[in-house]
Amino acid sequence: MKKILLTSIAAFAVIISGCSTKSTTVESDSSVDSKPGSGSSDTFESIDSKINRLNDTLNKVYFDFDKFNIRSDMQSVIQDNANIFNTEVSGVSITVEGNCDEWGTDEYNQALGLKRAKAVKEALVSQGVNADRISIKSYGETNPVCTEKTKACDAQNRRAEFKLAK
User: Fold this and answer.
1) 12 or 108: whose pLDDT is higher?
2) What is the pLDDT of residue 34?
3) What's the CA angle centered on 51, arms 146 and 124, to 5 degrees?
4) How much is the pTM?
5) If you compute the radius of gyration of the chain from its CA atoms, what whole number of angstroms results?
6) Is 98 part of any domain?
7) Residue partners of 77: CB distance under 8 A and separation at least 6
8) CATH code of the domain covering residue 61
9) Which of 41, 98, 109, 122 is the right S-S partner for 138, CB 3.0 to 4.6 Å?
10) Whole domain around residue 97: which residue ranges?
11) How many independent structural domains does the chain possess?
12) Gap between the Cα atoms of 125 and 70, Å rounded
């Protein structure tokens, strides 16, 4: 009987020691946000919202009066936009829209706007943007951003703008 009792006590001791609870501490990392969809905006931003955001923020290329060559101070705008087109939205179509001030005939300004858009397209292609992605369009003088009769206002209208689309 002592043997059974000792065996039972030994078995009970093994069971008790095997069932001891381990203390585990789980620390939360406050730098990680556990809410779904709370990652960085680039990670979860849809292509449509990225296109909308970029269409509102892409820099414009400005031109001198009666000119369509890219000014030296606008080269960085071309480089910055080309970088965006080649990395952030590499599969998206780009339209370059040429615009003019009100000076000159409608026909002349339409042609000048087209030359401005073409010059910008060529500059983007030289920065590695695929030419097949880029279309050009001229608004001539029909799309002013400023209508005051001042030189500063006219300068704002001599521009090329960018529109992205899927």
Assistant:
1) 108
2) 34
3) 75
4) 0.73
5) 33
6) yes
7) 59, 60, 61
8) 3.30.1330.60
9) 98
10) 46-165
11) 1
12) 14
DSSP β-bridge partners for residue 99: 140
The larger pLDDT score, comparing residue 67 to residue 32, is at 67
As given in the structure block, the two tokens for residue 46 are 């849809």
Q: Are 154 and 103 in contact (CB under 8 A)?
A: yes
Residue 56 lies in a domain: yes
Per-residue pLDDT tens digits for 78-130:
999 999 999 999 999 999 999 999 999 999 999 999 999 999 999 999 999 99
Instruction: Give a three-class secondary structure readout of 65-112.
Output: CCCCCCCHHHHHHHHHHHHHHHHCCCCCEEEEEEECCCCCCHHHHHHH
- Whether 9 is in a domain gets the answer no
**Rounded-to-integer distance, Cα 128 and Cα 121, Å:** 11
Question: Two tokens at 43?
Answer: 């990670």
Q: Is 31 exposed, middle or buried (0-12, 13-18, 19+ CB in 10 A)?
A: exposed
Q: Does the residue 91 lie in any domain? A: yes
Paired residues of 160 in beta bridges: 61, 98
CA distances from 138 to 58, 98, 152, 158, 159 (A): 18, 5, 21, 12, 11
pLDDT of residue 63: 98
